[in-house]
Design goal:
The protein contains four helices and no strands. With 115 residues, the protein is an all-alpha fold.
Length: 115
């Protein structure tokens, strides 16, 4: 496919020349411009192929967002239950049972589940 020519009127839309633009807006303009080129100018994509293409383009980001959401929920649960500190205390108790570690204060018994 030959290099795409950017018309002079579109430079300000996706070129980042104005302070009101950011990378998301510039990428959206570039995507629409590429779609117009592929459908109307080069005729490499047919109009009836567009729904399938758009569906495939939406599946990958949705999977990524699902992974990010579940990892954020898991990290909140781990932090709320104080699991990293308890695991660290357990490991330090096993690995260094007689050594005092001043930068890792002991965990109060109520946080370890012992009242």
């Amino acid at each position: 496919m030959p290099n795409a020519y950017v018309p002079p009127g579109c430079e300000g839309l996706g070129g980042g020349e104005t302070p009101a633009e950011n990378t998301a807006e510039a990428s959206a303009v570039a995507a629409v411009y590429a779609l117009v080129l592929a459908v109307l100018i080069y005729r490499q994509v047919r109009l009836r192929e567009l729904p399938d293409i758009l569906l495939r383009c939406g599946v990958t980001p949705s999977v990524v967002f699902l992974l990010i959401g579940t990892s954020m929920a898991l990290s909140w649960v781990l932090a709320h239950e104080n699991i990293p500190r308890n695991v660290g205390a357990a490991l330090l108790g096993v690995l260094l049972p007689t050594t005092y570690v001043p930068w890792f204060p002991p965990t109060p018994p109520r946080l370890l589940g012992r009242d």
